[in-house]
């Protein structure tokens, strides 16, 4: 079947010369990996390696997904509208254009950004233009060989499971070459079936971001920052919002300023890792900034570093989330703007210290599954109950943050602004962020986290990941690193078990392939396959009486947990 499909592609995949050349030179192993399955469409849409094949990102797999999305939109309305954005990745503009052509041919009105735009601006456009869906072409922080197709619902959140299933059902029935309708982009544009998103939408978005300031009267002119968009879509909106709030001393990393899907200075354009900051750190030797920060290519996440002696310290997503939560709660309480019964939302793999901080300020902390769409769901629930003002912050350990509910996805523009404001606020008090975090740990206890991913590429890799998860369910460890496991949670079975009392509890969250091990000392280990990459991830949350104790325990638990997974 694989080779039959390959032969059909060699005959019919002729619109893209890159694909035609690749198909002509494939080995048997390459053919097998490219055609052994269809690229999966889920609530995160599509994501995969760019290239020829049913298991690759190309104009045909994008077309098939879009035909399914068009059918979904037409099933819920007679006058459907979809917004489209794209980032700097290879073929992002090509895939965005193809998406628009197919939607237009299916009678769906298209609004598309004229140039690359961040994920949060797509989420905003969907809501602002009252669209029925949205698409952004991006693979977030993946290496250059990847691209993706993220689909959004009318609320600006990623597509719901029910809608995703509908799209997938249509995709399974559509012939990838003959079953996809399309029309010429320029023709659709001239007929009004495609329309460029105007400056009014961008201006409205920036105004909403600026409203998120916590201390709007704070003078930020004394703040000195270095910013890198990592060759992505954050360059214009981030610099514009900083200008509007008065951060005038901004040095942009020139080597990483221009959009480039090859990411020549950051092969892995991920603000979580130090390598992505190499150019900024070199620049810092002469600029001497108070803060360095970088947004990923689709500008929904941000990473930061601050001076530490003669070097710079990079903060984790957990650490930044902790500081933002404490900063927002403290300042809102001080200036009388903290809502009664305020709500913050985090993912289950995000640091548990947040619960102590929230409780100290009378803030409700809600746990949700990994994925910002679940944070978006909580914002929507509050909004539905006319309680939108209760929401103050949503965040996840993977460097995603959002204050206020004007969008339904993490927002690197919003986070960049708040981080700059927070840094300037503490600078005015003679403190840097290292001292701020240390004060938080001293007050609430040391809770140090680490996440590690193990790549399992290809067909065999997916089978390996499934085997690891099943083995942990069948042979649940009773101790890890010499510490008793007191609680085991299987989010796929929606059941938690207390090993001391033998009592079972129901997990009131959507089913997910996630396992959690609660240890006797309060530490936790969570294991889950990535939803967007061929990886399995382990999350360690280590509790200790001192920083040294927590740090050692974090290292030991990571080592033991890795062995538990067979790595």
Describe the structure.
This protein has 4 domains: 196 residues, Alpha-D-Glucose-1,6-Bisphosphate, subunit A, domain 3 (Alpha-D-Glucose-1,6-Bisphosphate, Chain A, domain 3, 3-Layer(aba) Sandwich), CATH 3.40.120; 108 residues, Alpha-D-Glucose-1,6-Bisphosphate, subunit A, domain 3 (Alpha-D-Glucose-1,6-Bisphosphate, Chain A, domain 3, 3-Layer(aba) Sandwich), CATH 3.40.120.10; 127 residues, Alpha-D-Glucose-1,6-Bisphosphate, Chain A, domain 3 (3-Layer(aba) Sandwich); 120 residues, 2-Layer Sandwich (TATA-Binding Protein). It contains 18 helices and 23 strands. The mean pLDDT is 95. With 567 residues, the protein is α/β, with parallel strands linked by helices. α4 runs parallel beside α5. Strands 16, 17, 18, 19, 20, 21, 22 and 23 form an 8-stranded antiparallel β-sheet that branches. The chain has a 6-stranded mixed β-sheet with strand order 1-5-4-2-3-6, with helices on both faces. Strands 8-7-9-10-11 form a 5-stranded mixed β-sheet, with helices on both faces.
């Amino acid at each position: 079947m694989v080779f039959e499909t390959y032969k059909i592609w060699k005959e019919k995949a002729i619109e893209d010369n890159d694909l035609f050349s690749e198909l002509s030179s494939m080995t048997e192993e390459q053919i097998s990996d490219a055609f052994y399955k269809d690229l999966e469409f889920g609530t995160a849409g599509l994501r995969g390696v760019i290239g020829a094949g049913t298991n690759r990102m190309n104009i045909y797999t994008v077309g098939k997904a879009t035909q399914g999305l068009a059918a979904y939109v037409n099933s819920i309305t007679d006058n459907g509208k979809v917004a489209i954005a794209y980032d700097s990745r290879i073929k992002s503009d090509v895939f965005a254009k193809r998406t628009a052509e197919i939607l237009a041919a299916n009678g769906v009105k298209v609004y598309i950004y004229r140039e690359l735009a961040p994920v949060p601006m797509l989420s905003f456009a969907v809501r602002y233009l009252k669209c029925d869906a949205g698409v952004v072409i991006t693979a977030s922080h993946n290496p250059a060989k990847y691209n993706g197709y993220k689909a959004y619902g009318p609320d600006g959140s990623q597509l719901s499971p029910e809608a995703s299933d509908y799209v997938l059902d249509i995709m399974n029935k559509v012939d990838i070459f003959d079953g996809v309708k399309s029309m010429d982009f320029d023709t659709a544009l001239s007929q009004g079936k495609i329309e460029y998103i105007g400056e009014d939408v961008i201006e409205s978005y920036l105004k909403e971001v600026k409203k998120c300031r916590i201390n709007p009267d704070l003078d930020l002119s004394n703040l000195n920052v270095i910013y890198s968009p990592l060759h992505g879509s954050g360059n214009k909106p981030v610099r514009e919002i900083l200008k509007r709030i008065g951060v005038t001393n901004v040095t942009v990393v020139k080597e990483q300023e221009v959009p480039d899907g090859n990411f020549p200075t950051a092969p892995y354009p991920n603000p979580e890792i130090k390598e992505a900051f190499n150019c900024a750190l070199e620049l810092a030797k002469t600029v001497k900034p108070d803060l360095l920060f970088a947004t990923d290519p689709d500008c929904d996440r941000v990473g930061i570093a601050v001076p530490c002696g003669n070097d710079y310290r990079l903060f984790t997503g957990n650490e930044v989330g902790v500081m933002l939560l404490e900063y927002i709660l403290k300042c809102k309480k001080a200036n009388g703007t903290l809502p009664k019964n305020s709500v913050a939302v985090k993912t289950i793999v995000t640091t548990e210290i947040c619960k102590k901080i929230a409780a100290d300020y009378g803030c409700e902390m809600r746990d949700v599954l990994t994925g910002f769409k679940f944070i978006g769901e909580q914002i929507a629930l509050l909004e539905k109950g006319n309680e939108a003002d209760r929401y103050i912050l949503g965040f996840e350990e993977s460097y995603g943050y959002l204050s206020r509910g004007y969008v339904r996805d993490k927002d690197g523009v919003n986070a960049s602004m708040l981080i700059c404001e927070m840094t300037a606020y503490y600078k005015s008090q003679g403190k840097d962020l290292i001292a701020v975090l240390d004060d938080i740990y001293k007050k609430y206890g040391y809770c140090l986290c680490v996440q590690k991913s193990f790549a399992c590429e290809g067909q065999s890799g997916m089978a390996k990941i499934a085997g690891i998860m099943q083995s942990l369910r069948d042979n649940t460890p009773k101790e890890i690193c010499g510490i008793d496991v007191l609680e085991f949670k299987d989010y796929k079975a929606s059941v938690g078990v207390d090993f001391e009392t033998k009592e079972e509890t129901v997990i009131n969250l959507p089913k997910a392939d996630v396992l959690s091990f609660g240890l006797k000392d309060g530490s936790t280990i969570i294991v889950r396959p990535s939803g967007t990459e061929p990886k399995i991830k382990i999350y360690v949350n280590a509790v200790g009486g001192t920083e040294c104790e927590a740090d050692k325990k974090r290292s030991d638990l990571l080592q033991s947990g890795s062995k538990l997974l067979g790595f």
